[in-house]
Batch of 2 targets.
Target 1
Amino acid sequence: MKVRSEQELAEVLAGANAPVRIQGGGTRDIGGPVSGEVLEVGICGVELYEPEALTLVARAGTPLAEIEAVLAGEGQRLAFEPMDHRVLLGTKGEPTIGGVIAANVSGPRRILAGAARDFALGARFVDGSGRVIKNGGRVMKNVTGYDLVKLMAGSWGTLGVLTEVSLKVLAMPETEATLVARGKDAAEGIAALSAALGSPWDITGAAHLDPGVAGPESETRVRIEGLAASVDYRIGALQREICVGWEVFRDDDSVALWRQVRDVAPFADEPVVWRLSVKPSAAPEISEALGVVGLGHAALYDWGGGLIWIAPGPGHDDAGAQAIRAQIAAHGGHATLVKAPADLRARIDVFQPQTGAVAALSRGLKQQFDPRGILNPGLMG
């Protein structure tokens, strides 16, 4: 079933007597399998764009490519650099802005700009009872009660179905450049990334790729963006202070390097891929410990080591879940099984299991916004 207006969506959910699987562009087959009729959100169109105010309002089903084209026409962009999951998951369709916000999809630039939720100014959505709810607005401000915009970001359609989002956008930089070193182990690479991120040079990308991920040698990458003269100055400073002898890639060559990281393209042919959010300083130790317990893997480290993408080798009935979650328990953070066959996702916790007060809070929110439990039941556990 496809709905094309907020009113139609509200009527469908109010009258629903069985679970529904919420779908935007159908590009993110992530989470536990959901039994229920597919409800496709086809509520499309850019409603308002004020370049001078750096704000855009769009209906949730608007293709991401359409929004990016509109922004590019005014020399602007989405600062949080959302991943295109089609590359990793092998899915079809078109990513939508509602799906991006619902999944809080944030790419390499998050280390400086922030996450998708940080740029969501307001939202309209329909909850599991068919109520239309509006929260936030077109400018950032403090609000009392629930910050529902932030709550919806990362809820994966389990609390409500987005129909409209208001976003802050930013100017597109004049140019970019990336410094690349080869041959460093994970500890050395992440130490270099930490030093670069601790410098005053506004790093917008910091990644380390294990040997065999993007080539026979490891690669450590640092990105700078901005006005051409500023980029040249900061690249020079980094080469003198931290990135001595690193190779420089500019413009389109730099863009290609970060699109590869953003979309986790090197793992496109892997059947199982995990996403770990951890302390950057703990990332090399976690990766090494996984190898010690027999979970052979390749790793791609983004966000200066704070985000680890892992493709475990074959031979693990649980896709490495026990070993990975043991490391999360020891070091903190959370792990998500982003890519795996549906039967595996049906018997393993895809998202990090919640305990204690967090689990109780989640149950309370679910009861308030989806008391009948019809929105994507089982997707998040």
Target 2
Amino acid sequence: MKRADYEVVVVGAGAAGIGCGVVLRDLGVQRFAILERYEVGASFRRWPAETRLLTPSFTTNGFGMLDPNAIALQTSPAYSLRTEHPTGSEYARYLEGISKYFRLPVRSGVEVLDVQSGGEEKRFTLRTNRGTIRCRFLVWATGEFQFPDLRPFPGAVLCRHYATVPSWSALPGEEFVVIGGYESGMDAAVHLARSGRRVTVVDPAAPWASQAPDPSLSLSPFTLDRLREIGGTNRIQFVAAAAEEVVQTADGRHAIQLTNGERLLTAEPPILATGFSSSLGPVANLFERQENGSPLVTEAADESTITPGLFLSGPMLRHDKVIFCFIYKFRQRFAVIGNAIAQRLGLDTAVLEQYRQASMYLDDLSCCGVACAC
């Protein structure tokens, strides 16, 4: 690939990138490409072996509700994978199947190194390891899992990040400290405890006690069930405090200083489950930022407010207090992006009514407040 021109380029072939690609295909966009530096579903393939999707998959398409983990109409991971909570490698197979079925133009092994926008033709120029690519519209759908935050506090480099663990059962050691108590931290704790190890989970927000109705801010029922399952073993302890610093002691152990004054000692590197760094990379300067640091995009199309034609898709998406970090949330915006692009290309958008009927076209964010009466 030396030089290529497209109408639309999607960067990332995970759930968001493949989902957006299907919408572009349905809209009849002729010249588009999906660029992926590894392979389809790469982030999911790198999950720890025991990790599974939090949301359950059911083949409910015939009853007016799309499978919660589906990223395309008339598809269901529950049907194709025959499992309720797919592993990462299983879900990657589903994404690969979608890519092949819809004949999506995925270009694997292409890493975007630099992005420039503007010029007389108002096109994007992407410098990649495979040559230069130009496009009129750019959809950034890179996800976050491949970009672990390794330095959230002093000494964090001595820890082992959640995203770097191939399998929890294969880790040596009998006692662990997990820093971070949301889903990734609890996933680590559950699997370590299931294999007979003792775990201390540290988090100042104490998410294990939260009853917030928004699943983006509290633990999922799937995780709460797993915690109850092993609750009687006393293998998991919880500490509502933050880690201030990690140092290595003279005898090779790890000392974790907490904000509540406690000092925890562990022979094994602490498990870091405090999140991921931004995956915006080459387009970071093409977005304004919200107060919480998230990319600022338009409500109408998830488009950069300072770079027309640049769209954001995936778990980084935020609109004020509305968080789109789960698949069933951010998939509702694929058609919104597709509609904006199709309108500017002069394409018929009638097909998007199917997305609206399937609750995959959320263009009114005023309905996104989460409240449960009981």
